[in-house]
Structures are given as C-alpha cells and as structure tokens.
Design brief:
- Helices cover 71% and strands 4% of the residues.
- With 214 residues, the chain is mainly alpha-helical.
- The protein has one domain (7-213).
- A two-stranded antiparallel sheet has the order 1-2.
- Helix 1 packs antiparallel against helix 2 and helix 6 runs antiparallel to helix 7.
- 34% of the residues are buried.
C-alpha cells in the first residue's frame, strides 16, 4: 500500500500518488472507450474500480468507496452483455444494440435515485455514529450517497447499453467535479470534468448510432 501512496509529483500544492494516477488513467480510458460504444471499456473499468476503492477509503468517502464494488460487478456483466446479445438485439458488429427508455421509466429512475440516495445517506451517518472508533465522520454524506445511487443506476444503464446513461452521467460528473475540487482532490476533479465533456460527446454519438439502426 505504501508504494501505491507514493507521491509522483505535486502541482499547485496538490500531490498525485501512484494510486490516483492509476485511477485517473484507467477511468479516462474506460469512459472514452464507452463513448465509442466499445466493449473493451469495461476491462479498464475493472482496474479503475479497484484503484478508487482504495483511494476513496483514504478520503473517508465511504458511499462512493462501496460504489466501486458495483462498478466492478457491472463491468464484468457489461462486457459479457455487450459481447453476447440476444439474436434480435444484436447490431451489425454482433454486439448489443443501443436502447432507449420511455418517459415513465426515466421518471421512475429519477425518483428512485433521490429516494434511495436519501435513505442511504442517513444510514451512513447512523453507521458512522455507531462506530466512530473505526470510521471518521463522512464527508458530504447525503450528497455522496445520492451520487453513489445515481452512479449505480448510470453504470447499470451503461452495462445494458441504454442511451440515457449519458444524460445521468453528465449530471453526476458535473456535481462530482465540484465536490472533489472542494476536497483538494484536484486531479480526480479534473478527471470528472473530462468525463463530463466525454459524456456530452457520447450522448450525440450514441444517438446517431441508434438512429442508424432504422
């Protein structure tokens, strides 16, 4: 663990460790490749989830730390799902076709994220209060929780190759950029800002691919 925490360099008073560098590089690769609708993005996602699980533990972001377990699982599922679609859901490359949600489904997901996220945040606060000797007070517990639940949904939709995942990622990544910057995780904040830009590009590219099916 000490080797992973080794500081490579500092910029404007902010240090970059080996662990954060691995997370930044694999995260950027995963999102960029996903924007291209390439299944290999999930393989980079596996490494990214492991790196950020350790990093978030160090910053006391417990909800988003546990989120990495979902990312890891959905990366395995997503890679298989994209590569082994049902016969009537395959595209020209014999991979999973891009799909769209209806408005009712979109509203259900939004309400679910806010509701479950609020419950989760309260649970994290209560859990830390019960075991203060093991866990430091959580940083931004409610916001962290809502972002966590939203990210689980977004990653699930990505693994199912649903277009709306990019709308959700744009909102989540924008908020995450501001949160990480305020905590001094400058390099991770920059990474999430780049995620936002990639998601903006992906939402257009995926729609064009979907329309080309017709």
């Amino acid at each position: 663990m000490e080797g992973l925490n080794y500081t490579l360099f500092s910029l404007w008073g902010h240090s970059l460790s080996v662990l954060e560098l691995v997370g930044v590089l694999t995260g950027f690769a995963a999102v960029f490749l996903a924007s291209k609708a390439w299944a290999v993005n999930f393989l980079f996602g596996l490494v990214n989830a492991m790196a950020y699980f350790l990093l978030y533990f160090q910053y006391h972001l417990y909800s988003v730390m546990l989120l990495q377990l979902f990312y890891f699982s959905f990366s395995i599922y997503g890679y298989y799902h994209w590569k082994h679609p049902k016969a009537d859901e395959a595209d020209g490359k014999k991979e999973q076709r891009i799909g769209l949600l209806n408005w009712k489904s979109r509203m259900y997901w939004i309400i679910g994220i806010l509701t479950v996220g609020s419950w989760w945040g309260l649970g994290v606060i209560h859990f830390q209060a019960q075991y203060p000797q093991y866990f430091a007070p959580p940083a931004f517990p409610m916001l962290d929780a809502v972002l966590t639940i939203g990210s689980i949904v977004a990653q699930y939709l990505l693994s199912k190759k649903i277009w709306e995942n990019w709308i959700l990622w744009i909102v989540l990544d924008t908020i995450s950029t501001l949160m990480y910057a305020s905590m001094g995780m400058v390099f991770t904040a920059f990474l999430f800002f780049s995620f936002t830009l990639i998601a903006l590009h992906a939402i257009v590219k995926w729609k064009k691919i979907y329309e080309a099916y017709e």
